[in-house]
Q: What sequence folds into this?
């Protein structure tokens, strides 16, 4: 009888651990998609116009990170993380042609978001 309870307890523990691991993976994937409107890219892959615009708009700052977002119509927006001489960090948005975009400017939804239905349903 003790062996039966021990086996049942082991199955319950294994099932709970598997459920928790699946739940953590699902939550992480959803957060990555929600935060994934910009795709990180290597700084060396930035268009020359964007690099020159950063240098002219933020003299003395260095680019620490870069990311890109491509709209359904192919228009790219670059999110640039900068560090100035004093170590302060800031983020700026640039068009592919190097135009500095206002921080509050609405951006078109990426292609993958445009075809998705709106739902309040929680997916497992």
A:
């Amino acid at each position: 009888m003790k062996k039966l309870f021990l086996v049942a307890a082991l199955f319950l523990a294994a099932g709970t651990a598997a459920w928790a691991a699946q739940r953590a993976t699902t939550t992480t994937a959803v957060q990555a998609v929600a935060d994934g409107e910009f795709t990180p890219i290597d700084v060396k892959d930035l268009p020359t116009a964007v690099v020159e615009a950063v240098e002219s708009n933020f003299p003395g700052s260095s680019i620490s990170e870069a990311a890109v977002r491509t709209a359904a119509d192919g228009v790219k927006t670059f999110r640039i993380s900068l560090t100035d001489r004093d170590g302060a960090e800031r983020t700026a948005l640039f068009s592919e042609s190097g135009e500095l975009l206002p921080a509050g400017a609405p951006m078109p939804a990426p292609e993958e978001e445009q075809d998705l239905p709106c739902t309040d349903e929680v997916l497992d």
User: Anything to note?
Assistant: Confidence is low (pLDDT under 50) at residues 25-36, 110-114. The CA atoms of residues 28 and 58 lie 35 Å apart. Residues 2-34 form the longest helix (33 residues). Helices lie at 2-34, 48-57, 111-114.
